[in-house]
């Protein structure tokens, strides 16, 4: 990825500052440190390669050089956004999903933080916060997308099947165009974060809607139930085996279809 081309490709977006790295440990780590310092709203950290990319609970995220998108966007939430920060992961997932839809793909969001194409993971999102006392000062939205075939990790390293945009499209898409579309979607959708319409769009994009799923929460026995949709804060709503509606919050959760 060429930093001049990157700046040019993003010049029409109202971003803060941009930091580009040919290789970095994790863009989220860099963005969290920058956010705790003086980063402006909508500042971006992006890398061609990550050597210590992270998923949730310090699981590894693979970003080999020259093949993927790995970036972290810093948001300084407005007063209106503050009550809805648990929806930010949905904002990022919908921004990715919409960018794939414009390429005639059919993405689905595997709650809480994955984007799937035909049941295969093509993108993962990691939202982290910088706190100032009791309040969230900044939110860092980390996004990893498998763009070219070479970004897909070997199957034996995965718990869930993975794919790339190139595999699904049949041609290699331009990484910078995909990046532009995602950021532009996210910025456009941001003012709707607290609306019912946003929640409905997010809910409609969920994978396994109406299906039986299994959710593992930490080391507790799995919850089995029918996936009904989202609660207002973005928690997942299920109907369990006793016909009771239960809400599953974000955290140490893994969702799987009951195949
Ligand atoms: C995620 O976690 O899916 C969130 C990934 C976020 C990555 C971005 S890249 C930019 C920013 N900087 C960072 O350091 N992170 C963010 P989780 O749901 O915990 O899934 C992690 C699991 O996905 C791993 O345990 C692997 O099984 C699998 N995995 C790792 N790399 C993958 C890849 N490239 N494609 C598909 N699956 C992958």
Quick tags:
7-stranded mixed beta sheet; 5-stranded antiparallel beta sheet; SH3 type barrels; alpha+beta; globular; 12 strands; 6 helices; BirA Bifunctional Protein, domain 2; 2 domains
Question: How are the secondary structure elements laid out?
Answer:
Blueprint: H1 3-10, E1 18-24, H2 27-36, E2 43-50, E3 68-75, H3 88-101, E4 107-110, E5 114-117, E6 120-132, E7 135-146, H4 165-169, H5 175-189, H6 196-204, E8 212-217, E9 223-230, E10 236-240, E11 245-248, E12 253-257
Parallel strand pairs: 1-2
Antiparallel strand pairs: 2-3, 3-7, 4-5, 5-6, 6-7, 8-9, 8-12, 9-10, 10-11
Helix pairs in contact: 1-5, 3-5, 3-6
This protein binds biotinyl-5-AMP.
Q: Can you tell me about this structure?
A:
There is one protein chain. The chain folds into two domains: 3-204, Bira Bifunctional Protein, Domain 2 (BirA Bifunctional Protein, domain 2, 2-Layer Sandwich), CATH 3.30.930.10; 212-257, SH3 type barrels (Roll). The strands form two sheets. A seven-stranded mixed beta sheet has the order 1-2-3-7-6-5-4, with helices on both faces. Strands 11-10-9-8-12 form a five-stranded antiparallel beta sheet. Strand 1 (18-24), helix 2 and strand 2 (43-50) form a beta-alpha-beta unit. It is 24% helix and 32% strand. Helix 1 (3-10) packs parallel to helix 5, helix 3 crosses helix 5 and helix 3 (88-101) crosses helix 6 (196-204). It has 259 residues and is an alpha+beta fold. The chain is globular and about 60 Å long. The protein has helices spanning 3-10, 27-36, 88-101, 165-169, 175-189, 196-204, and strands at residues 18-24, 43-50, 68-75, 107-110, 114-117, 120-132, 135-146, 212-217, 223-230, 236-240, 245-248, 253-257. The chain contains six helices and twelve strands.
